[in-house]
Amino acid sequence: MTSLALNGEPIGFVKPKTSVLKRLVTCALISLCAYGALSAFLTRYKVNIDITPQRCLSAWVYLLDTKDKEIKPGDLISIEGHYGILPDKYRYTKMVGGVAGQKVTYDGMYIENSNGFKKYAPPNKEYYKLKKERNLPTEWNLKGNELFLMGDTQYSLDSRVVGLADASYILGKAYVLF
Fold first, then answer.
1. Are the C-beta atoms of 150 and 119 separated by less than 8 Å?
2. What SS3 class is residue 166?
3. Which CATH number applies to 45-176?
4. Which of 18, 36, 68, 93 is the most buried (most CB within 10 A)?
5. What is the rounded CA–CA span in Å between residue 53 and residue 92?
6. Is the pTM of this model over 0.85?
């Protein structure tokens, strides 16, 4: 029930009369815009959940930008595991420690490249065992499509152990969600 003022005009909010057709068209346009925006987002971005038993980074859910493949040291990227001793089809998310044209060194505690990137990366006991068995290098001169990839967990299988990665296997740049 609407209260009327002395002059016969309603007091308060009066719902404007709109046709059902106008409401349907408005709803359809909003839905179409939302669908277009979501499609555009999902064409470029994917959610990547790291299900590997020994994650390379302490995060486990990433937003993967499949169009951005220009990388520099310090960036996080996701890469297919089709190289080195990782022949599986897992997606690994790792930090870039070096790119082509850079020299990367590992002194047992820090990974450092010739452009000034330096990251604390202490090894686990297994690394020393593998270093003896496989004569693992501690210095890499990157050329061509080579990347030095690293993790921030003690159990990361990164370029110190599995060797340099091939940039052609990059799926995109990764951003931590959780």
1. yes
2. strand
3. 2.10.109.10
4. 93
5. 11
6. no
